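hey
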């Protein structure tokens, strides 16, 4: 009998295809810790909304929303928060993730407009929830929306450039 070892060609592309989402997920989980506060707003600058929007854009309508629900659980678990964070000043923004995920996949507009609209939906939900807590829509507008517009626009450009490299016009169009 011939017991020689036969080396078969190994398809490294299949392993890379499998590992990309795993590495991306762990990288995004690490980004959950990135946040900073300005002294005049109770809402931190975070990457949560951009990650949720990115998840929604690379999924279809149903799985996009379910992925964002799962993402909200990840935020609670990996950030050391319990579910009372939904009643905190950031709760409205978190609820906005779900609606943004849904509208990202329903609207038939270009991808950059979807990203901008999704960020706007998150900001509006957060602002209205914050107005309920602060008992002032004007104050909520000034501390819950205005400081984040430029920051979210910049994050939208980053998401779009990432997706554009991945043929963004084919994603959720």
């Amino acid at each position: 009998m011939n017991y020689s070892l036969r080396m078969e060609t190994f398809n490294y592309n299949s392993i890379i295809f499998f590992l990309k989402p795993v590495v991306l997920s762990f990288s995004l989980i690490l980004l959950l810790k990135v946040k900073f506060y300005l002294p005049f707003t109770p809402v931190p600058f975070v990457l949560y909304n951009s990650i949720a929007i990115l998840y929604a854009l690379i999924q279809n309508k149903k799985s996009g929303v379910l992925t964002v629900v799962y993402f909200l659980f990840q935020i609670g678990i990996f950030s050391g928060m319990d579910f009372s964070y939904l009643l905190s000043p950031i709760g409205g923004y978190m609820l906005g993730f779900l609606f943004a995920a849904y509208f990202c996949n329903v609207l038939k507009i270009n991808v950059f407009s979807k990203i901008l609209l999704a960020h706007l939906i998150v900001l509006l939900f957060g602002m209205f929830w914050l107005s309920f807590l602060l008992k002032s829509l004007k104050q909520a507008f000034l501390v819950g929306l205005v400081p984040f517009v430029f920051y979210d626009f910049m994050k939208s450009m980053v998401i779009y450039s990432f997706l554009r490299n991945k043929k963004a016009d084919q994603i959720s169009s």
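Residues 111 and 170 are 9 Å apart (CA to CA). The chain has one domain: 46-168.
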